[in-house]
Amino acid sequence: MIDIKQFSALEKASKNSFAKQKQIVKKVMAGQKVLCLKCQQPLCLFTPEDCAATNSENAGIRCIKGCTDIHLDFV
């Protein structure tokens, strides 16, 4: 079982993670160079069209090695 303090800590960590990912998405989509925190490779935006051309299933933002992989839904 999880107590209130543990739940609050988990909720705070989740909120912070979401905010960081949101900032990464904004920067990459604005054309700014953003590096993966693990491998220091640039993050790239893969649109559904890019994925169709390369037979990849996951549209989103990721580095070449796959350390960072943010899935996005395009409408």
What would your notes on this structure say?
With 75 residues, this protein is of the alpha+beta class. It contains 2 helices and 3 strands; from the N terminus they run αβαββ. It has a 3-stranded antiparallel beta sheet. β2 and β3 form a beta hairpin. The protein is elongated. The relative contact order is 0.15. The model has no long low-confidence stretch (mean pLDDT 90).
Brief characterization of the structure:
The protein has helices at 4-29, 48-54, and strands spanning 44-46, 60-62, 69-71. By secondary structure, it is α+β, with helices and mostly antiparallel strands. Strand 2 (60-62) and strand 3 form a beta hairpin.
* Morphology: elongated
Class from helix and strand fractions: alpha+beta
N-C termini distance = 39 Å
Average pLDDT metric: 90
Separate helix tally: 2
How is this fold's topology laid out?
Elements: H1 4-29, E1 44-46, H2 48-54, E2 60-62, E3 69-71
Antiparallel strand pairs: 1-2, 2-3
Task: Fill in the keyword field for this structure.
single chain; 75 residues; alpha+beta; 3-stranded antiparallel β-sheet; 2 helices; 3 strands
